[in-house]
Structure formats: C-alpha cells, structure tokens
C-alpha cells in the first residue's frame, strides 16, 4: 500500500486493544504498530476504536512514541456515570477512565476522541449531570454522541426505566452544546503552530485537508489556500492562524 502511494493506514476493528489475543494469546497491538512503523515511507498510521476496559500502558506508550503512528486515541467511553457504565456492562468506571486520560495526556500532542450514549435505560437527571460533569472535567478533543435506541436481542433491550424520546433529544442537545465550547477551546492551542496536513480536496479556490488530529470523515478539517497547485494525497506544512468550532484555518508554509 505504501509503495502504491497510500498516505494513511487506518487500523479498525471491533476492538483493536485485543488484537493478537486469538493468534498469540496476548494483546499484541504494540508489536503490530512497531512492525508497520518500520516500513519505509512517509505515511500515517491511525488506530480506530480502543475499548476502554482493555487499553493498557503498552498500547498508550506505542501510540505516543512511534513516529508514524498519529497521537490519536479513539476510546468510546459511552458515559461518565458509574451507575450507567455498570448497566452497560463496562468494567472500568469514571475514576479509572480519568486515569487513562491522564496517562495519554502526558504527551500534550495527544488527541482523545470518544463517543457517548445518552438516554440509556435507567439514566436519571442526576446520572446525566454526572455525565456532563465528566465531559466538562476531562475535555475531550473530539466527541460524538447519539441517543440510545432499543435493539432486540441486546441485554439493554429488556432493561426497565426507559427514557422518553423527548428527554433523550434534550439531553443530547445539552451535551453537544457543552462539547462545542470544549472543542473550540481545545482547538485554540493549535493557533500559531505548523501542522503536517494531508491534502484531500480542492474546492472554490480552497484546499481542504486533515491534520493528525482528524480522522477521515468523522472529525474536522484544515482549510488553506495555495498559490501553487498541490496534489491531492500529498503532505504539506500549514501554519494554523484561526479556528472555528471544529475546524482549523491556515496558511501554506
């Protein structure tokens, strides 16, 4: 793939943290990342989906230290209330999730993305406030959220105390308003620095690309202009001069 010009290799599965358990009887993601990292060429390696119950120090260290692996942690934490995490079948609770975040952020360049479910059966106003406090405290760089929906055959399908749809939508709106503020604030730290950007589109005189902080199709973009023609799929250096809620604006350097 690298020989054919691929600039980003994305590892995605149901849970990348358990890669190797079936084949080698151990969690072998760090070894896999080191092997791919050793391939010659200028490209990114991105890991999508790391289950919070199974992420460990070795995985964090590999992602934060290997030069071609982008410092991007996609960890779907799902909630911030211990009661709801238990109902979801999660092992690690909010205190342990915060410890994971602290370890990751020992590298200040690291980006943390998560997903949250609001309106899970049994979620009270108090539980939702605990979620908001959790998100407000840890300040995720990227956060996606959706309302719970029943799916027949799942353990949650038979749980009591279902949340009304209108309440679920209201809570989703509140959460995303909070995250909008957090995202804008987190992005401001990029202003004045240069980033390696992968050029992906050209539209109305503006190039659109992504930095290491943005996964394809789900996160933000970097918008910039260039007097010289650039190739789609090449890396360029862009100085960030402005931000919006989810995107960056820059100048080609």
Question: Can you offer a commentary on this structure?
Answer:
- The chain is built from 7 helices and 10 strands.
- By secondary structure, it is α/β, with parallel strands linked by helices.
- It folds into 2 domains: 182 residues, tm_1862 like domain (pyruvate-formate lyase- activating enzyme, Alpha-Beta Horseshoe); 62 residues, Nucleic acid-binding proteins (OB fold (Dihydrolipoamide Acetyltransferase, E2P)).
- The strands form 3 sheets. The chain has a 5-stranded mixed beta barrel. It has a 3-stranded parallel β-sheet with strand order 3-4-5.
- A hairpin with a 2-residue loop joins strand 6 and strand 7.
- Helix 6 runs parallel beside helix 7.
- The longest helix is centred in the last third of the chain and has 23 residues.
- The chain starts with 7 loop residues before the first strand and ends with a strand.
- The model has no long low-confidence stretch (mean pLDDT 96).
Write the layout of secondary structure elements.
Blueprint: E1 8-12, H1 21-24, H2 29-37, E2 44-48, H3 57-65, E3 72-74, H4 82-87, H5 94-104, E4 111-118, H6 125-138, E5 142-147, H7 165-187, E6 194-203, E7 206-210, E8 222-225, E9 235-243, E10 248-252
Considering DSSP H and I runs of 4 or more, what fraction of the residues is helical? 25-40%
Specify the CATH architecture of the largest domain.
Answer: Alpha-Beta Horseshoe
Mean pLDDT: 96
Basic shape? globular
Q: What is the SS-derived class?
A: alpha/beta
The figure for the number of domains is 2
Annotated CATH homologous superfamily of the largest domain: tm_1862 like domain
CATH class of the largest domain: Alpha Beta
> Radius of gyration in whole Å, from Cα?
20 Å
- β-strand amount: 15-25%
Give the uncertain stretches in residue-range form: none
CATH topology of the largest domain, anyone?
pyruvate-formate lyase- activating enzyme
> Would you count the extended β strands for me?
10
Major β-sheet, in short? Answer: 5 strands, mixed, barrel
């Amino acid at each position: 793939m690298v020989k054919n010009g691929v600039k980003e290799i994305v590892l995605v599965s149901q849970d990348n943290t358990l890669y190797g358990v079936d084949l080698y009887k151990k969690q072998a993601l760090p070894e896999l990342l080191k092997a791919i990292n050793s391939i010659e060429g200028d490209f990114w390696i991105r890991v999508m989906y790391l289950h919070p119950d199974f992420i460990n120090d070795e995985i964090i260290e590999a992602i934060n230290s290997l030069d071609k692996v982008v410092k991007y942690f996609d960890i779907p934490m799902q909630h911030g209330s211990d009661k709801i995490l238990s109902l979801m079948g999660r092992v690690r609770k909010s205190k342990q999730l915060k410890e994971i975040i602290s370890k990751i952020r020992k590298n200040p360049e690291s980006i943390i993305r998560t997903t949250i479910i609001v309106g899970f059966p049994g979620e009270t106003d108090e539980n939702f406030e605990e979620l908001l406090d959790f998100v407000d405290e840890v300040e995720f760089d990227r956060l996606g959220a959706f309302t719970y929906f029943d799916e027949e055959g799942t353990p949650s399908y038979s749980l009591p105390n279902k949340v009304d749809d209108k309440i679920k939508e209201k809570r989703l709106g509140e959460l995303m308003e909070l995250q909008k503020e957090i995202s804008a604030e987190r992005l401001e730290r990029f202003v004045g620095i240069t980033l390696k950007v992968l050029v992906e589109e050209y539209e109305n005189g503006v190039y659109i690309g992504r930095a290491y902080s943005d996964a394809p199709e789900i996160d933000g973009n970097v918008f910039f202009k260039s007097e010289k023609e650039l190739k789609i799929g090449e890396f360029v250096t862009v100085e960030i001069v402005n931000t919006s809620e989810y995107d960056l604006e820059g100048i080609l350097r």
